[in-house]
Amino acid sequence: MSNPSDQNRFVFDAEFSVDFAHRLIFTDDLLADGDSTIESLFGDSSASADSGVLAAIDSEVARLHPNLGERLTGRFSSPELPELREVTLVPGGEAAKNDPDVVEHLLSLIDTLRIDRKSTILCIGGGAVLDAVGYAAGIAHRGVRLIRVPTTVLSQLDAAVGVKNGVNKFGKKNFCGTFAVPDAVVCDESMLATLSDRDWRGGFSEAVKIACLKDESFFDGIESSAARIRDRDMDAARPVIRHCADLHLRHIAEGGDPFECREARPLDFGHWSAHRLESLTDFTVTHGEAVSIGVALDTHYSHLVGRIDRDTSIRVVRTLDALGLPTSHPALGSDALLDGLEEFREHLGGRLTITLLEGIGRGIDVHVVDRDLVAEAATTLPNLLSG
Amino acid sequence: MSNPSDQNRFVFDAEFSVDFAHRLIFTDDLLADGDSTIESLFGDSSASADSGVLAAIDSEVARLHPNLGERLTGRFSSPELPELREVTLVPGGEAAKNDPDVVEHLLSLIDTLRIDRKSTILCIGGGAVLDAVGYAAGIAHRGVRLIRVPTTVLSQLDAAVGVKNGVNKFGKKNFCGTFAVPDAVVCDESMLATLSDRDWRGGFSEAVKIACLKDESFFDGIESSAARIRDRDMDAARPVIRHCADLHLRHIAEGGDPFECREARPLDFGHWSAHRLESLTDFTVTHGEAVSIGVALDTHYSHLVGRIDRDTSIRVVRTLDALGLPTSHPALGSDALLDGLEEFREHLGGRLTITLLEGIGRGIDVHVVDRDLVAEAATTLPNLLSG
To answer: Left if phi > 0, otherwise alpha if psi is -120 to 50, otherwise beta: which for A44?
Structure first.
């Protein structure tokens, strides 16, 4: 450098990498006598006798499984397991992420119960509760160990597998959050039996989404068993849930960008409108339903911009429909919905990047969105299957 | 597994690593005409035109450099640089970490100024302000780009180089925080000229600490130039600040545990009592002074448990003294101070691990602390140099 003020300038550069391990477990009933999952998670713990467990349970799950707290306490009474210091309830659904008192209360429990970085927070619940509890675990002591037990289809095949957490703020989804790899994710099949039909079906929109993006034969399988899945045939649903979770896990581990430093978020197909639709409808449309509508919209838009043919678009929308999922909504195409594009860009940062389809199993990132064609997609979507 | 309830159990394991780059820059005057640092940091930005800059300045730094905001605005008026959207002041010192409104205000600015993940928060200040602003940057949108400009000796050679942030809660230091690698750390020498003598000297306790742990010849250098450093001879101080920061950076990059997943924190020599002393004295003892006292205490304790000889212990304490740093305090040895051992254990998690000296340049982790000998070290420390 020729400038005199640069003469004293000195630069040290360092590069390093951090290794993470991510474990995803499927089991029939985590708390059943003889299920070895809890021993496998805590038995080889390097924690000292000072480390304990705080269990946080989704209030809706606790209502449907009234003896859950008691079963947990019994399960942890073994001297080989760390001390279960408290079982606390967390409001179910988006309330967990909207109410700052939820995180505040969890932090105060972490403080008073002396939950340290080698202690474990065991969270049993739906995606929103896992997100809020995960956030508290992520920021306390710069990260307490977290085991997630997702209890919905949606969280078992999608949210709980991810390496992030978040709470809503300023009316924006996941405005605050961190990237944090859970110690383990344990999908307990017994929890799915008590889901409402609406929540059962809602989860499969994420399976259709990831199949559309990455795996054509997986899509074929969902398409052919959609009616059985809708009717809660576990033998049809189980392989879909597991394969979807595995695809998600592989995307994180092998996709090269687990902490989303690049501009695209390839798994967010259909999500720009889904996020917006949820907040525009005050969360009366669930996340799973909103994703179904968002996937239908962006699939149909992919056709209108010439990337896929009309039959392919119809196949995707028909599969969502056959799963009992909604594929359009009156709020689609409103200016307020289209403003979701900017909110989505802002949350990801950098230039706008959304994912479209080039075929089933083939997602592609684009940076330009034609608002008129989005509006046309929204207008024509309700009649696509009857047209 | 023989148990029938395990028959349907299935485990997916995934391992992955995340790469990080860490850049440490020393320069005379970051905002001087012709200094190329800002261009080097923003010139190759992959950010879109939508990305901007939020500058957060330590109120104490702003008081000592009244034209800093104006210089920043002028510097960023270049069309090649992203838009500087606002310059906000953050209360200097520990107040930044104790007052939750500081983080809340920063988050609301990030929201209203539409600072996205590819935008940058440029923070100019001492270690506490860098910690609080870094925390806001770490949790907003799961992590906004952060450039730290440390303005004190202490933050230039230690805190700012680290990959963590934090705020205090429940009366506990850094109860909330995240691990987050800054985009760059820029040490601006011109900022050091306005430090009080007390703050100037305080920083060098961390240099003595890391020299004691890792680098005997570095210790020799500090020892021989202690009086010149105390008297603010920049030619004596500059190499100490730079070498100390470089040692710290190498420890993070090459130490194998940048996010502190193991039980020990090898750089926390002298810190269990230092953290406690700060809160016991309501932060009237500064962090740098507390570290000096803590290093003196644990060095003398290392002698009392037979790990180093008396002369070595005296050399370390004398060097701290020659730098103009305090080496004892009336609160040392009180039960309230010793309770800091448990708080320190809890923050790190797992069993208690503190670092002692086996010689100058050689730290060693231990898990047992003899409270009586700590009390004896505290009692005899004030007379060590005169004895």
So the answer is: alpha
